[in-house]
Amino acid sequence: MLRWLIVAIGVFCTGRASAGDVIAIAPGVDLIAGSFVPNRQPDGNSLVLRARDGLVVIDTGRHAGHTQKILDYAKIVNLPIKAVINSHWHLDHIGGNPRVRAAFPEVKIYSSGAIDEAMHGFLANYRKQLEGAIAQSKDDAQIAAWRSEILLIDAGHALYPDVVIEKTQTRRIAGRELVLHLQAHAVTAGDVWVFDPSARVLAAGDLVTLPVPFLDTACPARWDTALDDLAHTEFKTLIPGHGAPMSRAQFATYRVAYANLLACAASDKTKTACADGWLADAKALLADADPAFVKRLLDYYIDNSLRVPTAQRDKLCGTAAST
Length: 323
Ligand SMILES: [Zn+2]
Description:
Layout: H1 3-11, E1 22-26, E2 29-32, E3 46-51, E4 54-58, H2 64-77, E5 81-85, H3 91-94, H4 97-103, E6 108-111, H5 115-120, H6 122-136, H7 140-154, E7 163-164, E8 169-173, E9 176-184, E10 190-196, E11 201-209, H8 220-231, E12 237-242, H9 248-266, H10 271-281, H11 291-306, H12 310-317
Parallel strand pairs: 4-5, 5-6, 6-7, 11-12
Antiparallel strand pairs: 1-2, 2-3, 3-4, 8-9, 9-10, 10-11
Helix pairs in contact: 2-4, 6-7, 8-9, 9-10, 10-11
This protein binds zinc ion.
Zinc ion (ZN) binds near residues 90 and 241.
């Protein structure tokens, strides 16, 4: 399967550039926005929280340029990065971990333990696909991009957590109280979303992504259930894994659009009808999105994530019979 490569080559090549500026979310809470740029895989959003003992960073991006913005932020405010929380193991969220460790050797990284299985499965397969693609390509820029993906994977344990989140818990991290929610088998086998009760900010990781849900490693139905859990949290602002900050009303729009997309994919409606439904339902959230780009993404995800054999779904949903 060439899932991620197809996404990399066929879809994100047409992605839109977006500013990577620091955006103030609440006192002591800033967003370093991720981006899509042509011919590159995306960076997820990073959220930086000022804590009593230093900075807590939620997700570290993929490319060196994104992670450098986090390190520059720490330099400007003259505070050490004391902790990183990874929402999930996708490379656009953990790829900067080694650079943060190099700059702040004392940093503690928190995440679920799902990366270990991914490293031996999904990421190992992806690495093989990258090697195959490099062997066949004559495009030096593309080869360089793929090589940097391999380098990221080969960072191995530098990507792993120091502290494995095994259950939902309230925890003081660097002196700031945070609620870490563990969600099993939603976007990945182990997702962590974070609620900051003092700022009433919720960092959703890839449980909320725009311009479409990124379903590559997801259990779509359990993701839907996870959105209910987010809705029951008293946040004022929700930070998606990809896309602009959301109010409660905007998140409610996303939730309806997501549920309708799943219902459409489960019906005998055409892919075009489902994509049109998403574009209509999520219209208020998609001001900057190119509809053709959205349709290409949904065309891919309906075929490869939503209309798939039961065995594939059961594996990602953690409901496969053990052998
Ligand atoms: Zn992501």
